[in-house]
């Protein structure tokens, strides 16, 4: 009985109204039950034993219908619930209440998984297209490799691997996913709304609690990743629209950010440098965290970037491997992080306006003759220069092999009033190849024409050197320790889960399969023992060769507490000789566009006391050449 009718029931009984009339009145008074879901007695997720599922709906006379094939229940489809449903195998139950052909409730979806079945998922699952020509002329890939799951080295850990990440269960009609005529997975080159399908997305946390279950749309996402000959593991995009369910997902998908509302979410499969890649040189570098590291690093440098969160993905009850939620940097993303409304922003992706217009972006790129300072200053009305320099520096450090004039970048700018554009890293999978990769001095690989034009400007080159000094020295974002720490933090999130990924996809390109303890750990050891410890110095030399870091070393500033007073002591040293000039009023010791010394700067000769609120800036001047800017403040030590 509907709880909201209980006061009415008490009043009717007290007034001695006959029982049959009470029942009739209550049925007539029942509220429109669109918000009342079918009640299900067993929570979703991994089950330790067979399940007896009970479904209940509080409206008398309503029939509950359910499906177990991923499709939505309808008045004329599925099964009518009449008794408990006994489950002992992986099953997705979707149910709703109907009366007189009208659906009275939202569709409730619950995923029930049995780990032993997951671990021994067959290569030819019933009801799915299988064989060498199942996926538009390409072989199907479904099974879990017993050489991993039954190996004594992994047998215990692989069970823990499935409990180490949340579950995302996608339920949709098998034809919507895999039929030759309309299946989005096998017709993966098709794009746009005509190739969007309805689905349920159910997010189950590692503690067994369901974070959300939402009906939404699903598409294939990406470029090369969607080509079956290149990758049998596709990426997806979830889109939240009223035609499927809520118009937005309201859930803290990324707990580290304040954004709790999403219009869409990308489900990244990982393609480059993964075990499914067509090229062996890429497969041996599989780590699963490169893209997340690049975004984490852009945020660590002080800028906006998307977030990542890893999940175990199941498609209609079949395990599909590790994926990660990622934010798509569109106009809604811009409004969430920069403020305002989505319609305030232009979003450019690979030379096309994904939201808004191209006008402001084209105006920015029309600024020429950038060797001249007045043009350089004009450009900064359109471009957030410190952000752009950090964006480039991060790409250079990572040796990104897959970013250029026409691929793998987003730029966001406010349209009215026109605000400076910001570049966001995107699809950062092709990074950390060879220790000596040089994307600084290879013009055809430099990310953008604009960057090459700016290198003709002396002020830009020194400004670039200042950002190098900030991030490559001291406790900077791209120092060996800091870069490696961000890597190990992300790697720890997927470490166990990579055993499951190995069992699911490690065999599709090689026999024997790629493995966690062998291939995965070998690449991680290379990165932690050889790449990160040396990469900063390697790139620093590349930047010097390109004129993006001065030949004169910046001074080393040290701030320490005074033993005799509440003040602090600042010291400065130069390894290049020359004269150290310092200011303590947060201004530059150098006169802009000049080799002259600022009247506010003094030559540094000996350690001196400074107050706690002071922010010191210093450069070395030698033979008319200024070093990059070094900064120090007692506030950073408190």
Mean pLDDT reading: 92
Question: Which strand-content bin applies to the residues?
Answer: 15-25%
Kindly provide the radius of gyration, computed on alpha-carbon positions and rounded to a whole number of angstroms.
Answer: 30 Å
Biggest β-sheet, characterized? 7 strands, mixed, barrel
Low-confidence stretches: 1-33
**Number of beta strands:** 31
The domain tally reads 3
- Distance between termini? 61 Å
Q: If strands are numbered along the chain, what order do they take across the biggest sheet?
A: 11-12-13-14-17-19-18
Query: Which shape, going by the Cα principal axes?
Result: elongated
Q: Output the number of helix runs.
A: 17
Oligomer: single chain
Which class of secondary structure composition applies to the elements?
Answer: alpha+beta
Secondary structure: helix percent: 25-40%
Structural description of this entry:
This protein is of the alpha+beta class. It folds into 3 domains: 32-113, Immunoglobulin-like (Sandwich), CATH 2.60.40; 161-545, no CATH class; 556-637, no CATH class. The protein is 26% helix and 23% strand. The chain is built from 17 helices and 31 strands. The chain has a 7-stranded mixed beta barrel with strand order 11-12-13-14-17-19-18. Helix 5 (157-163) packs across helix 16. The N and C termini lie far apart (61 Å). Mean pLDDT is 92; it is low at 1-33.
